[in-house]
Design brief:
Shape of chain B: elongated
Distance between the termini of chain B: 39 Å
CATH topology of the largest domain in chain A: Rossmann fold
Helix content of chain A: 40-55%
Radius of gyration of chain A: 21 Å
Number of helices of chain A: 12
Number of domains of chain B: 2
Oligomer: heterodimer
CATH superfamily of the largest domain in chain B: ACT domain
Radius of gyration of chain B: 18 Å
CATH class of the largest domain in chain B: Alpha Beta
Structural class of chain B: alpha+beta
Number of helices of chain B: 4
Order of helices and strands of chain A: EHEEHEHEHEHEHEHHHHEHEEEEH
Distance between the termini of chain A: 17 Å
CATH class of the largest domain in chain A: Alpha Beta
Strand content of chain A: 15-25%
Number of strands of chain B: 9
Largest sheet of chain A: 7 strands, mixed
Strand order of the largest sheet of chain A: 4-3-2-1-5-6-7
Number of domains of chain A: 2
């Protein structure tokens, strides 16, 4: 091992232990050896918390046992020896750590608990990687400024497009270019519903019901089908990549719940598909059903996400990827952590 | 001078002659005609490619004549002149006065509704596809106007990306 003499620890806390939080634990379990070898850093989960309980151990918890415990009992307090009733901010105060993985649920009313957890971590000089769109969509600047003031790193690739690279792609890989717009499909659930309505000619209500049975749509599907989720992502892209100081209420939002199978049929006859499209440009911040040409870059089906970035030097650059999923979203968070490791360790 | 044109002409007997007839009378020479019968659009129109020769003012008179005859000029000297945009409306389209919707779009200069297809669904909301032919620089204007009409009539508009 090349780094054996200089091996450093990076102690992380995972807040939120649903699909994404568990995905992070699984991803760390799968990749910690690679990270040791490539970057000389020993990744340790020192705490993980669900909505009301946690497991905390300064020496490090076992990633696989965390996931197993959560799956079997539903509560992290059942983690052998180190499980307990601490939750939320108390967890951050009970253990020394270097980086917070913030994976609590999206809340677009007040951004909590993600907002407070993130600001608390910043104030203690800790770096944060988040998958949580809510507080960023509500007050992007507050969070970015707080990270700067505290001289910490903040990464949020997983908030938009799950595993599909877009924020880091534009910031790092396309850093020579100015971006004039980003147009894309940023919600997998609605893309799945519209794709199936197109291939089967069935009604919106029927496909929504089936998607709920398959676990692709949530029991309360409003955030997805009314375009709220895509609008949050629109705000994050506008602020982070186009320097548009927008907030959630600046986005014009139409969902897919009034799309008829007749409309899809009419579009098809003219060589078009109907997709829920997010448009991010200085002229338009908009989520709405749009016509896209069959066979174009927007002709992407199932739960996939896509985005086309219009740049001055590189022309149009399009990406496609899995927009949701446990380990897939966690991959974006782990990549963010690695970018922090490269800068700081 | 020479000029290349692409026209959209209905694929029915007599239409090609109608296009070609005025040319010599206005002092222009027809150099080539390419009649592409295998690429018909949804409205039954086919592209006819012409190369004309003549004095600038005579060529200009031919263009004016075509406009007078309401012949669509798709391209002139390689430049695209007209575009067809599509939009879908969902809602109570018939009840909200379909004729008025069309008239409002047609009122824009250089813009007219070239296709309309509606699917009714009993008492429920109906869906309509509208094709609009417009001068190249009018695309945004068309979308803005249709959006205004849709908002006014509480219809959901689905525009092209």
């Amino acid at each position: 091992m090349k780094f054996s003499d200089t091996m450093k620890d990076c102690r992380v806390i995972i807040m939120g232990f649903g699909a994404v939080g568990q995905g992070v634990a699984n991803a760390i379990s799968l990749k910690k050896e690679m990270i040791k070898e490539e970057y000389g850093v020993n990744l340790k989960i020192v705490a993980a918390a669900d909505s009301s309980t946690s497991a905390i151990c300064q020496e490090g918890l076992d990633e696989d046992l965390l996931v197993k415990t959560k799956k079997e009992t539903g509560k992290l307090k059942d983690y052998p020896e180190y499980g307990g009733d601490k939750s939320n901010i108390d967890v951050l105060e009970s253990v020394d750590y270097d980086c917070l993985f913030e994976a609590t649920p999206t809340n677009i009313i007040d951004g909590e608990p993600g907002r407070s957890l993130t600001l608390k971590a910043f104030s203690e000089g800790k770096d944060v990687v988040t998958s949580n769109k809510g507080y960023l969509a509500l007050n992007f600047n507050e969070i970015i400024e707080a990270a700067k003031e505290n001289n910490v790193l903040f990464r949020y690739e997983a908030t938009v497009g799950g595993a599909m690279p877009i924020i880091n792609l534009v910031k790092d890989t396309l850093s020579s270019c100015n971006v004039s717009s980003i147009i894309g499909i940023l919600n997998g659930t609605t893309n799945y519903i519209l794709s199936r309505m197109t291939s089967e000619g069935s009604s919106y209500e029927d496909i929504l019901r089936e998607s709920q049975e398959l676990g692709i749509a949530e029991t309360n599907p409003e955030q997805d089908v009314e375009g709220i989720d895509a609008a949050c992502k629109t705000v994050i892209l506008a602020n982070s990549l186009l320097s548009i100081p927008a907030t959630y209420s600046d986005v014009s939002v139409d969902g897919i719940s009034s799309i008829t199978s007749e409309a899809i049929d009419l579009a098809k006859r003219d060589g078009y598909l109907i997709k829920l499209i997010a448009e991010v440009s200085p002229e338009n911040l908009k989520v709405s059903p749009r016509l896209v040409k069959e066979g174009s870059a927007y002709d992407v089906n199932g739960t996939l996400n896509m985005a086309t970035v219009k740049t001055d030097l590189a022309g149009d650059v399009s990406v496609i990827g899995l927009g949701a999923g446990s380990i897939e979203t966690a991959s974006a968070m782990l990549t963010d952590l690695i970018s922090i490791l490269k800068l700081k360790y | 001078m020479r000029m290349d044109l692409v026209l959209a002409v209905l694929d029915v007997p007599g239409q090609l002659v109608r296009v070609l007839e005025p040319i010599s009378g206005l002092g222009a020479n027809l150099v080539t005609v390419i009649h592409k019968r295998d690429v018909k659009d949804d409205k039954g129109k086919i592209p006819v490619q012409l190369t004309l020769e003549g004095k600038r003012e005579n060529l200009q008179r031919v263009i004016e004549k075509f406009r007078e005859l309401e012949i669509t000029i798709l391209e002139m000297d390689g430049f695209v002149k007209k575009i067809i945009v599509s939009t879908i409306l969902i809602g109570h389209i018939v009840d909200s006065d379909i004729r008025d919707t069309m008239d409002k779009i047609n009122k824009l200069e250089g813009v007219y509704v070239s296709g309309f297809d509606i699917q009714l669904n009993g008492e429920n909301k109906s869906s309509a596809l509208i094709n609009i032919e417009a001068d190249l620089d009018k695309k945004q204007l068309v979308f803005d106007r249709v959006e205004e009409i849709a908002n006014e009539k509480q219809l959901l508009m689905i525009n092209e990306v």
